[in-house]
Amino acid sequence: MSAYLGYSMSYIYSQFHEQMGMTPLAYFNNLKVKHSCWLLRKTSLKINQICYKVGFDDPYYFSRFFKKIMGLPPQAYRESDRFIKIPR
Fold first, then answer.
1. Within a domain: residue 75?
2. Which residues contact 18 (CB under 8 A, 6 or more apart)?
3. Whole-angstrom distance between the N-terminal and C-terminal Cα of the chain?
4. Do residues 40 and 74 lie in contact, with contact meaning Cβ atoms separated by under 8 Å?
5. Considering the domain boundaries, does residue 46 fall inside one?
6. In 3-state terms, what secondary structure has residue 79?
7. Among 14, 22, 30, 59, who pairs with 51 as Cys (CB 3.0-4.6 Å)?
8. Per-residue pLDDT tens for 29-87?
9. Residues near 66 by Cβ (< 8 Å), separated by ≥ 6?
10. Is residue 78 in a domain?
């Protein structure tokens, strides 16, 4: 992408961080968690199926990462009735 745009990777990274308030990787991971939240609420897919669907290779790591971002594990999120803020 940097070659196509004619800018260095560090410049693109810094501009992204400045505009979005987070690194490109953090933004991408937040998108994964946001989609996971939707899948947990709207489908009956198993947690490991959701894990693979959103791009994680390890269900255990996915659960830990999800809990780190959302404050509770995927199964508890699915079972909760209260509104939990989805990352931006």
1. yes
2. none
3. 24
4. yes
5. yes
6. helix
7. 59
8. 999 999 999 999 999 999 999 999 999 999 999 999 999 999 999 999 998 865 566 66
9. 33, 36, 73, 74, 77
10. yes
The DSSP secondary structure of 30-78, one letter per residue, reads HHHHHHHHHHHHH----HHHHHHHTT-S-HHHHHHHHHHHHSS-HHHHH
Query: Measuring CA to CA, which residue among 2, 31, 28, 32 is closest to residue 15?
Result: 2
The CATH number of the domain holding residue 57 is 1.10.10.60
Query: Which pair of tokens denotes residue 86?
Result: 């989805």
Task: Return the structure tokens found at 67.
Answer: 């809990």
Domains held by the chain: number: 1
Domain that holds residue 57: 23-88
